[in-house]
Amino acid sequence: MSEVGSSAAGGRDQSVAPSATIHSLRLAGTNSLAMLDAKDSKLTLLRAACSLEASLRREAKQLSERTQRPDVMRATTGASSLERAADEAAQLIRQIDELVSNAARVSSERGREGAVGGSS
Length: 120
Fold this sequence. Notes:
This protein has helices at residues 18-24, 30-33, 41-66, 72-77, 81-118. With 120 residues, it is mainly alpha-helical. The chain has one domain. The longest helix is centred in the C-terminal third of the chain and has 38 residues, at 81-118. It starts with 17 loop residues before the first helix and ends with a helix.
């Protein structure tokens, strides 16, 4: 599968393999997404969202390593603002995955019903 580039991390192009990011999130509908064309716009957007989430996590880790002082947000809430943003992005990705997967299943079922109905 091709790689999706991300410019979310300060304009740097840091490519992320879509399958790696999608599978690392353990998305429930990943199997049904196989029914969609690889260039389907819904899949493209899902891959871009996964790439953004991965970029947020990378940036949070890099920032944590660069900064020598304690992170006030992390001390207060247990996570930095970038980590929280990545967590929220992951939640949204799971919701999008579920919606796209349901749409793929419905489309597939309609296609099968049409094929069965058309052959009679």
